[in-house]
Structures are given as C-alpha cells and as structure tokens.
Amino acid sequence: MRTETPQLNEHNKAEYPPMHTAEHILNQTMVRRYGCPRSRNAHIERKKSKVSYELPTCPSEAEVQEIVNAVNEVIKSALHVTEEYVTLENVPSEVSLEKLPSDASETIRLVRIGDYDVCACIGAHVSNTSEIGTFVLLGTNWDEEKKSFRIRFKLAYCKNL
C-alpha cells in the first residue's frame, strides 16, 4: 500500500520546540480559564516570549499565578505531543481555523498535547511536555483601551545532579 505525503503550506520560521509547545499550553489554559480566543499576537523566541490575549478585564495577581501554576501542571503531566493530518472537512469542531491563510492546503496538520489541547499548526514541537522545562513568568501588561493582556515568559531547566 502506498502512502502519500500530505502537501502542506510552507513554513518560514524555525521555532524553538519547547517554547512553541509551551505557547500551545498557555493558549489552551487561557481559553479554558477566560473563554477568550487563542493569542492573536505572539512573539515566540528561544530566550523569552510574549503573547497577548483579548480579555474584558485585567486578571488579578492571584489569577496570573493560577495561570502560571496551571501551565506548569500540564508540563509536569508528561503528556505526549502528537500530530495528525486531516482534510479541512474533517477538522474537529473544537479546532479554530481563523488563523489559516486564505491559500491553506486542503490537508492540515493538527498538533495534540495529550487530551489538553489540539490546534492546527505547522510549527516545531517537543514530543512530550516533560521536555519543556518550567514556565517562568517575566511579567504582564494590561492595555485598558485595547482590552489586551500581555504575558511575557521564559523557560527554565533544572539539571539533576
């Protein structure tokens, strides 16, 4: 039996897989906690990253700490990160296609983080959340006019002695 390789859109960025996977976890954490869309404005880099969310009000310091704790709990859960290819007509209803380019291929790649998150993505990811390290909050900003909440973060790694 011959298996064809799906033809996907080209990707012009080489993400740092642990940071990119952490972004997926943070996105799903925000969606679950606040019912907001996934981040529309993200800068994901190896050393530090930032993402912004549209929220009606600024989260309190306690709520921000809950977000950090929730992300780290998912990371510690050692969830498998898998991919699958589906046609646009077979995309699960929980997957948003808002960010797909207008010239998206008929086949898309879904990235799953255990049963915690699934989204369409062409980027690089780790194979297990245990490879991410610890999610560390660097700071937050609130833009009252835009109702935009920005989270800045990095990843930290502990070496077992």
Mind summarizing the main beta sheet?
Answer: 4 strands, antiparallel
Q: Give the % helix.
A: 10-25%
> Spatial order of the strands in the main sheet?
1-2-7-6
- How would you describe the shape? globular
Rg calculated over all Cα atoms: 16 Å
Low-confidence stretches: none
* Structural class assignment: alpha+beta
Oligomer: single chain
* Separation, N- and C-terminal Cα atoms: 49 Å
Number of helices: 2
The average pLDDT value, as a whole number, equals 90
Strand content: 25-35%
Number of strands: 7
> Would you list the SSEs in sequence order as H and E?
HEEHEEEEE
Lay out the secondary structure.
Layout: H1 17-34, E1 41-43, E2 49-54, H2 61-76, E3 81-87, E4 107-113, E5 117-120, E6 134-143, E7 148-156
Antiparallel strand pairs: 1-2, 2-7, 3-4, 4-5, 6-7
Helix pairs in contact: 1-2
